[in-house]
Each structure stands twice: as C-alpha cells, then as structure tokens.
Amino acid sequence: MEGSPADLHEHLFRHEAGRMIASLTRLFGVHNLSLAEDVVQDAFCRALEVWKVHGPPPNPSAWLHTTARNRALDVIRRERTARTFAPELARLLETEWTTAVVVEEAFAGDVVLGEQLRMMFSCCHPDLPEPAQIALILNILCGFGAGEIAAAFFSSRAAIEKRITRSKAVLAASTSLFDLTNADFSARLSAVHRSLYLLFSEGYHGTSAKGAVRAELCEEAMRLAALLREHPTTNTPATRALSALMAFHAARLSTRRDDAGELQPLWEQDRAEWNRDLILHGQELLESSAVGDELTSYHLEAAIAAVHSRSASVAETDWRGIVTMYDRLMSVAPSAVVALNRAIAIGQRDGPAAGLAAIAAIEDPDRLESYPFFHAALGEMEHRLGHADLAREHFGRALGLARSEAERRFLERRVRASG
Amino acid sequence: MADFVYLYRNAQPNRDAAMATPEQRQKVMERWMSWFRDLEAKGHIKSMGQPLDPTGKVVRGNAKTITDGPFVEAKDIIGGFSIVVANDAAHAAELAKGCPALDMGGSVEVRPVMQMNI
Q1: How many domains in chain B?
Q2: B68: domain range?
Q3: Which residues 67-96 in chain B show a CB within 8 A of chain A?
Q4: ipTM value > 0.95
Q5: Considering only CB atoms, which chain B residues are within 8 Å of A94?
Q6: A265 versus A237: which is more confidently predicted?
Q7: What CA dihedral angle connects B34, B35, B40 and B42, to 10 degrees?
C-alpha cells in the first residue's frame, strides 16, 4: 500500500481536512460543525470520483479547496433563510453583494491559519478532559477517523465515537470559536501545549498502537506546534521550547526500536542513526525559546533532550548538567516520574549506590509501584552493583507490569541479562 | 431617522469594463463589501438588498405582454438596490458619496420610502 494513490490521497485528505473545516466553520459558525464536516466529506468524495477518471490535478489541495468553497457557496445560497450561519458574518452572507467575497476570504491562507488555531484552542475547552481534547484535535484538525484514533489509543471504536460526539456537543454549544484576544488566552495556550505534548508522548512512548500510527501521532503533534509558531500571538517561548523538545525526541524516533521491533533503550541506540536535521532544528528552537522570564517544564525537558542529542555515548553524557536540570524541573513541575528520572541521572553521575539512595528518597514512591520502569531502574542499579538476585527480582516485577508486547520482550531480555 | 432606498444605476458598458477580468471583478466586489461594512458599522444599513442581473423580463400594460428586458441597450439600468437609514434625504445623499458605483461611471438614486397613508 505504501505510496499507492489511495495512500497519497489519504495523507493529503488528512492534512487538508483540518484547513477546510477551519474555513467552513468560520463561515457556517461552530454550531454548524457537522455541516462543515459534510462539505469536507463531499469534497473528498468528489475528488475520488473525478481523480479516478481524470487523474489527480496538478495542485490537489487547491482543487480540494476550490471544490469546498463552491460547495460552501451552494450551501449558503440554499440555506440562508433556513439556517443561521456565523453570527459575525451572518449579515454579509444574507446578500449576494458580499457572499462570494466573504466565502473567498475564508479560504485565504492567513485566515485559514488563524481559524485552525482558534479551532485548536476551542478543542482544548476546560470542560473537556484531556483525552477528549486530544481525540477532538485528531478528529477535527488532523482528519483522523474514530477507528484510527481508537487504534492509536488502544480503545474501542465505539468508545472513541462516543467521546468525540460528546466533545463536539460541547464545542457546538458555544456561539463561536475561541478568540485569540480572549482574556483566558494564556491559560488556554497552556492547555493547548499540554494536549500537543500528550499527543506527541502517546506517539513516542505509546504502549499500545503499532509503529506507523505512533509515528503519525508524533508528526501531527509537530505539525500543529509548527502552526502555533506561524502566528505571532501563539509563537511564544514555551511554544518554541515544546517544539524543540519534540524535535529532539523525533530525531531518535527511528532508533527506539531495532529492525525486529524490539524496544531499544537509550544506551543501545545507534546514535549515528539519529536525525541530524531534526537535532539542529531542535537546537535552533531551543535557543530561540530562551527569551522572557517564563521557564516551563518544556524548556527543561528540551534542554535535557538536547544534552543527550549532542552526546556521543552514555558515558560521555554531561550527567552533572542533566541532574541540575532535573533539580529545576522538580521545582517547576514536580512529579514522581520526574523524581525517578532525576534519580537515574544521579545514578549515572555518582554511581548506582547513589542512584538507589536517590530513588529511596522519592517522596511518594507508591505512585511508581505500578510503573514498570520504576522496577526496571532498580534492577539496572542492582545489576551494576553486581547484585544479580536483586536485579532479577526487580526486573521480574517490572515484567509483570509490562503494558505491551514490546515492553514485555524488552524486560524479558533484562531478566535474562541479569544472570 | 427614515428609510431610503438606494438604486444603483449604470450603463452596461461601464459595468462590463469594470468587471473585465477576474482580478477586477474581485476588486470591485471587495470595494462594495468594504463600503457596506462601513455603512453597517455606522448603523446605516437596514438591508443590503441585492445586486441585480441585467437580464430579465418586462411585463407591460393591460395586454400583459412579456418581453425580454431591453436592458442591454439601456443607458442606465438598475444594477442593484439597498435600504439605508438616514436622518433625511440630504444625509442619505451624503452617505451615498462613498458608493463604488460612482467611480465606475454610475449613479446612485436616493429615494425615500414613501409612507402610504390612507
């Protein structure tokens, strides 16, 4: 299937769907979201029919946009007495004096960008739980169907459909999309960052979905973060720090698994395979994020990832610097997992005994009990101290908690390696 | 405050010249839009009305004869209408000075809505 026309169309459709929906909801109003979705679906069906006969046009996205625009004009002309469209444009859509120009404007590049951002912000509505926000973003802005989202989140299609329907009802109940000049802008931007971060993490660490889907989640999170950087209002230092973090991790994405699909820990990854372009891109972003006085967890996580990306091996890594950054991360965004990672870094800097002591000092270790890599970290340190029995015991416990086949196989290898 | 109807008049060759290319067409439409937006923002728009196509029919007289509109030859055909709110006729005429039709060789006929009293 790779590279086949149907595949290419699917990719194109996914990327255009979010842009077209943005233009259409600007015209129709967010309360007519499902009408906008119908028009997009219509354009895709037409494309498949026409392209099958005549072959795809030279500029397929322009073709799709023109088709959606003409369809929007039809819908507005046919239904303007029966429906209320976007309140701020309603009067201009009542008359032929202005309808065509207004519709044309809604498909202009800078308008589409602005509307996509407003849609992204609207999807991160505080009334919606984070998983619903992410499902909504994937569905509306990335053109993922319920089945694909279910595959990515190891959920059932029916459950995701229900989640999306419920979330769209929240969205459609508002009179208009989130305005970027809103007083709650900063808070909402943080929620958007968080959703994109979780979306990326699901792709990067995701335990459930298959490789291809997971890479796509990372790609989409990066694409949406790039949209945030395109607009002056949303291109904040935190946005750039988050983008840097994603770039550094994405650079390593292909080496996280070996050819057999086995999970490769950092110390076993072939660093020559890391994507230099993405690392460079990450460095530029990280440098440009170092302005203003807000130090976010994205800044620190990106800085840590940057150290790894420029180190030739685990031994040659600046663990001192990494521990310092984990210390700061603990003060900015403390969590049990951050504390564990800090302890692991201390174990690299000062040796396994110090690492064990740092783990023992974690304040709420209960929260880590069910996390397989907590036990695996203990196993690694006991292993390095030469305590084979203890190491095996910890790895065994980790193995019992494995959340996926890949994790299971990886931990089995560690059990065997511990002698 | 009273209602006035604007009748936008122009000769067909003038209209054709102003809308010769798609770019010109779009420019003209954008000018109409910004004019309407401006009037709307100042609270003068009661209804933007509609633009009118130069084709059509005329039904005439007792005999109710129907002919195709002779509009193509007509020097001065109505290209559209709007309803505005203004203090008086002078004010309505003053407001009409911003109309893009004027720059295309056209005119705006400003007519007060007549109150039909019995």
Answers
A1: 1
A2: 2-112
A3: 80, 82
A4: no
A5: 48
A6: A237
A7: 110
Q: Confirm whether B63 is domain-assigned.
A: yes
The CA distance from A88 to A278, in Å, is: 41
Q: Is the pLDDT of residue A295 over 50?
A: yes
pLDDT tier, A5 (very low <50, low <70, confident <90, very high otherwise): low
In a domain, B65, yes or no: yes
B32 contact A CB<8A? yes
Instruction: Note the residue count of chain B.
Output: 118
* Residue located via tokens 């039909």: B116
Q: For position B74, which CATH number holds?
A: 3.30.70.1060
Q: What is the DSSP letter of A309?
A: H
CA A346 from chain centre, in angstroms, equals 29
Q: Cα separations (Å) of A155 from A61, A78, A150, A336? A: 32, 40, 5, 26
Structure tokens at A371: 């996390």
Pairing assessment for the beta strands B45-51 and B65-68 based on DSSP bridges: unpaired
Query: Following DSSP, what letter does each residue of A159-175 receive, concatenated?
Result: HHHHHHHHHHHHHHHSS
* Longest CA pairwise span in chain B (Å): 51
Tens-digit pLDDT profile for residues A252-274: 988 887 777 778 888 888 899 99
Chain A partners within 8 Å of B26 (Cβ): 101, 104
Residue B61 in domain: yes
Q: Write out pLDDT tens, residues A324-358.
A: 999 999 999 999 999 999 999 999 999 999 999 99
Residues B82 and B5: beta-carbon distance below 8 Å:
yes
Residue A102 structure tokens: 């207004």
pLDDT at B79 over 70: yes
Write down the pLDDT at residue A205: 78
**What is the average pLDDT score of chain A?**
91
